[in-house]
Amino acid sequence: MNNNNRRRNFRSRPQKSNFRRRSGQMIVNGSNNNGNISFNRNGSMNNIHNVEKTMQKYQQLAKDAQSNGDPVLSQNYLQHADHYLRRFNELIEKRENLVEKSLPEDKTLS
Questions:
Q1: How many domains is the chain built from?
Q2: Lower CB count within 10 Å: N or C terminus of the chain?
């Protein structure tokens, strides 16, 4: 069985000077190359503005699908938007916890 999408592993050669070859499989953030590398690399799930923008995009796509008469696609987009809404709420909660932790430290110093 030949999978054309998979990188071929070539035989390693002795390294010359400081030149390094990439390995056959790229690993980012401890996960395998599964198509989500650019997503994981740029940290977009940790940026509250990117998450909010993506959530709004899926909400708009759901509205468009509903107006085009496709309730299944609309529901799919709403589920995606709901996922980003949960992530958005997690980031807000995390931000609030960081602010609460930093306030008592500031009060004890002054």
A1: 1
A2: N
**Cα torsion at 97, 99, 104, 110 (round to 10°)?**
170
In a domain, 20, yes or no: no
With respect to residue 66, please indicate whether it lies within any of the assigned structural domains: yes
pLDDT attached to residue 40: 46
62 burial level (CB within 10 Å; 0-12, 13-18, 19+): buried
Q: How far is CA 7 from CA 1, 3, 12, 20, in A?
A: 14, 9, 14, 17
What does the angle CA 16 – CA 19 – CA 20 come to, to the nearest 5 degrees?
Answer: 115
pLDDT, tens digit, 9 for 90 and up, residues 6-18: 666 766 666 555 5
Query: pLDDT tens digits, residue range 60-70?
Result: 999 999 999 99
Segment 94-106, tens digit of pLDDT: 999 988 888 766 5
Dist. CA 39–CA 43, nearest whole Å: 7
Q: Looking at the domain assignment, is residue 32 inside a domain?
A: no
